[in-house]
Every structure is written in C-alpha cells, then in structure tokens.
Inverse folding.
C-alpha cells in the first residue's frame, strides 16, 4: 500500500539556521510528490511539487526539495529559517499514479528559536 | 482569481445529528476533494467529485456523502455523527481531477 512517512514529529531550529525536513514514500512507480505547510487553525498551502524532470524543485518562501528515487525520499530544505516559518509541514504523494487522491504523512511541527 | 472558500468556519453538533459543510472551488477548477484532519494527524482523503460525479473514495463509511453542483461548488454531508467525527474538514479544488490541489481554510467540526 502507498504510504508517506515523516520520521520527525517535532523539530526545533534557531532562526537563521538551515532546515531539512525528511519525507519517505512508498510507491512502485514515479510518484507525484508535494509539500504543504499549515499554520495553526488554517488550511494547507502548497510549497512545491514534483511531477517529473529536474529532481531539485524550487518552491515558494525560499524552500526547495530534492527527489531521490534510490532512497524513496523527497526532503524539504531551506538554507536560512525565519521565525515566520514556524508551522506544521506535510509531505504528500498522489495515490494511484495521479494527484486526485493525496496520501499525507503525519506531519512535522517546526519550532523556530529566536 | 478567487481561492477556495469553505463554510461555516466552526460548527458544534451533538452525537447522532447530521451536518452539511460547503465548499466553493477556485475559479476555473472543476474538481473538489474532501479531507478529514483529526487533531495531530495528516489529512485523510474522503472522496473526490469531478463534473458532478463521485470520482474516488477513501476508507470512510457511507454516512459520509457528498454532492457537486453545476457551478462546481460542493457539499459534504455526514449523518449520524459520532464523537470521532470531530476534526478539521478540508476541501481542495483542482482541474480535471488530476491537477495540483489547492486547499481551503477548513471547517472545524466538534461533536459533543
């Protein structure tokens, strides 16, 4: 069965430090992959997506992610974290080879220390 | 361009009641998907509507049902509410059932 694992439930980084959030997926073919961000009590905002092509994708707010097929990973990175980046981050895969049904990970809560 | 909107923002019901949640899709989108997000969890896919027909369903019982209207807005109906139905309900719209999904702010349902 398809699944998404975000190994880190909670991460704390200092403002200005670099960030990497891990995501591992289980899917037999080339997946459609997404990262969304959710502020408290809010809906989900799309940060970036991977459908095909260049395995390093750029998103909004200075985020990027790299698709590594050999490791079944799609880790999210940011070189310098801002206090406003504190939020919940979700990795998702398009189930059954399309984006019509998303399977989400459990999420990683990012706390930013001043 | 108008984004995805949902109503109401919050709702409190008692066990056994019925509830209807509403979603207006982003301008130009003809597909709406619904998700349930329990506290501390990732969203779980409930079902998708494409051109007024159900186009895929997750592992939810039949008391979760939906509709899509000619203007592509959608309703989620839940009958015989249970305490475990307390969650944030998110709708997302996309184009042609396979495009990137854009989410609304959600409806927070509390079942007492």
């Amino acid at each position: 069965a398809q699944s998404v694992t975000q190994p880190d439930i909670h991460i704390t980084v200092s403002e200005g430090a670099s960030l990497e959030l891990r995501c591992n997926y289980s899917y037999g073919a080339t997946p459609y992959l997404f990262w969304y961000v959710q502020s408290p009590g809010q809906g989900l905002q799309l940060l970036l997506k991977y459908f095909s092509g260049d395995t390093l994708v750029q998103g909004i707010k200075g985020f990027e992610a790299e698709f590594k097929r050999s490791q079944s990973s799609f880790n999210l990175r940011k070189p310098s974290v801002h206090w406003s980046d504190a939020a919940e981050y979700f990795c998702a895969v398009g189930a059954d080879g399309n984006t019509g049904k998303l399977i989400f990970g459990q999420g990683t809560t990012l706390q930013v220390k001043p | 361009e108008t984004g995805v909107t949902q109503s109401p923002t919050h709702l409190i019901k008692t066990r056994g009641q019925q509830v209807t949640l509403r979603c207006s899709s982003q301008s130009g989108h003809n597909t709406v998907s619904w998700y349930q997000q329990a506290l501390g969890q990732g969203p779980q896919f409930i079902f998708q509507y494409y051109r007024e027909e159900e186009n895929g369903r997750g592992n939810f019982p039949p008391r979760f049902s939906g509709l899509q209207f000619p203007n592509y807005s959608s309703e989620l109906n839940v009958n015989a509410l249970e305490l475990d139905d307390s969650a944030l309900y998110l709708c997302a719209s996309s184009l042609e059932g396979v495009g990137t999904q854009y989410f609304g702010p959600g409806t927070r349902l509390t079942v007492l």
Q: What stands out?
A: The longest strand of chain B covers residues 87-94.
